[in-house]
Model the fold of this input.
Amino acid sequence: MKKLLFSAVILFFVANICNAQAPERSKSQGVFVEVLGNGLLYSVNYDTRFSQSMNGFGGRAGIGYIAIEGVRLTTVPLLVNYLFGHEKHFFEVGIGATIVAGSAETDNGFGPVGERDRASGAFGTMSIGYRLEPTDGGFLFRAGITPVFDSTVFWPLWPQLSFGYAF
Done:
């Protein structure tokens, strides 16, 4: 958690320095750290619009990594999203999938100690929330809910919170 907080603080300061030097941007793009949300625990993401407008369709891709007590989990959220709004306040909706690959250290008594069980899969995700993104770039903030689902599970109220830099 300390690494995540440190990364967010560094990203915020770099964003402010770059914002002071940035010219008017021609296309909405951004990088952000998302806590919870589509990457489950946290992820680092890149987001872009498919047109020159702040509103409209766009996409995002990210990567997250968790290592706790012998369990390693890598997540790759991929979404298509749509922004509604003007100036710097937007309502965001999106849909996509998160690819998950993980491994866990096992000691089942039959194999060597330290053997790893591996698994992978994917689940569906959505994104519904608020986005603060100035038209000339700078600090990017997102908050909302991220419904998570597959054939057996539906979590309608999984929260998301993001901080980053728009350019």
